Amino acid sequence: MSLDIRLDASQAERLAADLLGAQSVVLPEVRKTMSTAGLRMKDRMRREARRPGRLAGVERSITYDLVGQRDGFRVDVGPTFGNRSVGPLTQRQATGGGRGQGALAWIGYDGTARRGPLFPEPQAILDDEAEVTATHLSRILDEHLT
């Protein structure tokens, strides 16, 4: 008894070629979308930290970094501490001189033993932006992979 199995892989090979070709178009679009999301989150966190009665100068310590990874991009948003590097600039340069106030941000977010938080929980900002970003990423994939 003989079993004859045939497999036509021509469409799988074409799909692989299409996906590899789309990578050069899709990755820059994804990078731009993630960077925009980071900038919007940073701006919103800064606005909320700048309101009257808040900790002065903390808003300047809130930055974002777009980090390229092997499997995509990651956005880090939040206060920076001391003279930690922010992209090509040090914290001192990024805030226009003066002392970095990033460590005070945690008092703003967590409060103290005597006083509760001064800033809204940043998770709401992440949730809002995640929904918008997912929509943009889905649109990018639809445009280039269909």
Task: Describe the 3D structure.
It is a single chain. With 146 residues, the chain is α+β, with helices and mostly antiparallel strands. It has one domain. It contains four helices and four strands. Strands 1-2 form a two-stranded antiparallel ribbon. Strands 3-4 form a two-stranded antiparallel ribbon. A hairpin with a 2-residue loop joins strand 1 and strand 2 (72-79). The relative contact order is 0.15.
Quickly describe the structure.
This protein is of the alpha+beta class and 146 residues long. It has helices at residues 10-50, 91-94, 102-110, 123-145, and strands at residues 62-69, 72-79, 85-86, 89-90.
What labels would you give this structure?
single chain, about 150 residues, two-stranded antiparallel sheet, about 15% strand
Structural class, please?
A: alpha+beta
Rounded Rg: 22 Å
* Separate helix tally: 4
Task: Report the sheet with the most strands, covering strand number, pairing sense and barrel closure.
Answer: 2 strands, antiparallel
Helix-strand pattern, N to C? Answer: HEEEEHHH
The side-by-side strand order for the widest beta sheet comes to: 1-2
Query: What is the overall shape?
Result: elongated
The oligomerization state is single chain
Proportion in β-strands: 5-15%
Distance between the termini: 43 Å
Provide the helix percentage. Answer: 40-55%
The number of distinct structural domains comes to 1
Weakly predicted, low-confidence segments: 85-98
Mean pLDDT: 78
Number of strands: 4
